[in-house]
Specification:
18% of the residues lie in helices and 27% in strands. By secondary structure, the protein is α/β, with parallel strands linked by helices. Strand 1 and strand 2 form a beta hairpin. Helix 6 crosses helix 7. It is globular.
């Protein structure tokens, strides 16, 4: 176990970053990690249903990415609309921040606004004079590491097929591999966690436990709670689902109860999992909180060994890339 940031790094060739999705969602490769035996298999995501046991329940995040990337009418400021704050107010990331200090005026889509507050983390709370129509003026906020502009195909492919609750500024990417046919073969239930920009925030502290974890809104419905109680093993689809399930389990003393709230749970070694022991996830950025989460589940050394093999085998990395199934 290590709490040092430098121990969650790995060298990744730029050529292995998946800049575009595959034509077929389910054609992704799937590395299967068996934690107890430390066995690594190379499979295809289309085989995922064959790994489920009787009584298993896949839990998926049904958030929907909103067109949150907007430019000011004068073209000087780039906004990322993170979440509504009531009364035509929005919490936004802005770039460059120096051009939008406290009390500064701006306008997007013809709607004037003024900065009411500058948060310690750099976000701006902006009061607009009228509702901002993101569907009309916004762009889908694809990850910056793709190194390209948004394309028409992203409107479909950077959403899961079951996305239904708008509010995320990044996709829960483990779910991007599912097709209607595969989902129909998998017993499943949904939670909602609106993925925030903090998922891309780099860890800058030498000791990872000193990193201030971002907070994200979530909901676990009574129906999903009943399905979980009736299930055997839970298969978390993505790290966002893990954060919901583990947050609810912590709040319920180990029992997963219906809940609406927010979480800033930072899962890293030596975290002890209460609810999740099986996870489908994509390959994550070096030194990221997501890499630390999977390291807590499968062990840092085993994860880094698997990542090194994925690089040798030329797996595709990050949001539009291949996936990993972590089993006991």
């Amino acid at each position: 176990m290590s709490l040092l940031l430098r121990d969650y790094d790995y060298p990744l060739p730029q050529s292995l970053i998946a800049v575009h999705p595959l034509t077929d969602r389910s054609a992704s490769r799937m590395m299967v990690l068996h934690r107890d035996s430390r066995l690594i298999e190379h499979r295809r995501f289309a085989e995922f249903p064959s790994f489920l046991l009787p009584g298993d329940l896949a839990v998926l995040n049904d958030t929907k990415v909103i067109p949150a990337r907007v430019f000011s009418d004068d073209g000087r400021i780039e906004f990322l609309f993170l979440e509504p704050a009531g009364g035509n107010r929005w919490l936004c990331m802005v770039k460059p921040g120096r051009k939008l200090p406290l009390a500064a005026s701006t306008a997007v889509g013809g709607v004037p606004g003024v900065v009411q507050e500058v948060l310690p983390t750099g976000e701006r709370l902006i009061q607009f004079d009228a509702p901002v129509d993101l569907d009309r003026i916004g762009q889908l906020p694809i990850p910056p590491y793709l190194g390209r502009a948004v394309e028409p195909a992203d409107a479909d492919r950077y959403q899961t097929i079951y996305a239904r609750h708008p509010g995320a500024v990044a996709a829960p990417t483990a779910g991007l591999h599912f097709t209607p046919g595969i989902l129909a073969r998998v017993p499943h239930a949904f939670v909602t966690l609106h993925v925030g920009a903090g998922t891309f925030t780099p860890v800058r502290t030498a000791q990872i436990r000193d990193h201030p974890m971002h907070r994200e809104r979530f909901e676990l419905s009574p129906g999903t709670a009943r399905a979980i109680h009736a299930a055997g093993r839970l298969i978390a689809i993505g790290t966002t689902t893990v954060r919901v399930l583990e947050s609810c389990a912590a709040a319920g003393g180990g029992e997963i109860l219906p809940q609406i709230g927010s979480t800033d749970l930072f899962i890293h070694p030596p975290y002890q999992f209460r609810a999740v022991h099986t996870l489908l996830t994509n390959f994550h950025l070096p030194k990221s909180t997501l890499l630390m989460l999977v390291s807590a589940l499968a062990g840092r050394e085993f994860i880094l060994e698997a990542y090194a093999e994925a690089i040798r085998e030329r797996y595709r990395f990050f949001s539009y890339g291949d996936c990993m199934l972590i089993l006991p």
